[in-house]
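queue> holo job accepted (magnesium ion)
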Amino acid sequence: MHIIEFNAYCAYYKTKSGLIKALDKLSFSIDTGEIFVVVGESGSGKTTLLKSVLGQCEYTEGDLFIEGMSVDDLSVSARNIGYVRQEADLYPHMTVYENIAFPLRIIHTAQAEIDRRVKEIADLLEIPWLLTRKPRQLSGGQQQRVAIARALVKQPELILFDEPFSNIEPNLRAEFRALLRKIHQALNPTILFVTHDLGEAFSLADHLLVLENGSVADFGTPAELLQQHHSVLLKGYLK
Ligand code: ADP
Ligand code: MG
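queue> job finished
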């Protein structure tokens, strides 16, 4: 089953000098429950691709389906999609508990259920001891764990990660990759993860798409891509 399907999909931005194309005729699909990684240099279109899935791109061509429905026909509130950005972007005046609970408060979840879900997700992210702190009392890595918990608390079937580990100290990144695998095993969501780090991409992906100037430069499983020695882009990365 495909959870997401791009079909000859293009996305543009409107600028003073006219429309510029950020995604160019993308056609690929993402299987339900897999970890799908998009890797590409800065400016290749990774964030635009995630914004497209969130229905935040105004000027588009072609089709994009989520669970068989066109994104154009899905209202934003009807989508239960988690989104983790590069910056943790927590609400500074709220405790960790309230930050994680916030998406549930918006939909008027009962307090007992909020309590249960926040505790469950805090356990999974290994941060129950941080629940009473404010964001400024946390390290960068801890803040990102809270941001991930907040994105997961509504139990989305699809979670988008936009270079979530790039602000984390290099020696902690392996720990975060392990955490991502643990989340995937525990909750079994589909994960769409974008990064400029090829090592990260190869270590996480079930399928990997290499994006170059808004187009698909390469696609396959990590093993398939490693066998393709003719791939100019991979040679560039793996010298
Ligand atoms: P990435 O996330 O891979 O760095 P982006 O998706 O942010 O790439 O950007 C893709 C292209 O679209 C880039 O050329 C970028 O300059 C352009 N772009 C992104 N956002 C805007 C915007 N709001 N207005 C105009 N151009 C944009
Ligand atoms: Mg980006």
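queue> Strands lie at 2-15, 18-31, 35-39, 59-66, 69-70, 81-84, 158-162, 190-195, 207-212, 215-220.
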